[in-house]
Amino acid sequence: MVFDLITVDPARMNGQPCIRNMRPTARRVVELAAFYQDREQLRQDYPELEDEDIQQAVLYVGETGDVR
């Protein structure tokens, strides 16, 4: 699978995999998806995250095991 929304930049968040060159890391997005059972509340609290961002973060962490 191509993870085109996951970016890695050594100058951002210590090189951790992030969502679309923003600050949220893939790991943090997976934690948020687990914590927020109501996806609408997650969208309200983190409006910069789109459904596809969340899906790719979950798949990325699941496939790579990268939880830095």
Descriptive notes:
The protein has 68 residues and is mainly alpha-helical. It has helices at residues 26-35, 39-45, 51-64; strands spanning 6-7, 18-19. The two termini are 20 Å apart. 22% of the residues are buried.
Low-confidence stretches: none
**Measured distance between first and last alpha carbons:** 20 Å
- The CATH H-level superfamily is Winged helix-like DNA-binding domain superfamily/Winged helix DNA-binding domain
Element order: H for helix, E for strand: EEHHH
Concise summary:
The protein is mainly alpha-helical. The chain contains three helices and two strands, in the order ββααα. The radius of gyration is 11 Å and the shape is globular.
Which descriptors would you attach to this protein?
mainly alpha; Arc Repressor Mutant, subunit A; globular; two-stranded antiparallel ribbon
Strand and helix map with partners:
Blueprint: E1 6-7, E2 18-19, H1 26-35, H2 39-45, H3 51-64
Antiparallel strand pairs: 1-2
Helix pairs in contact: 1-3
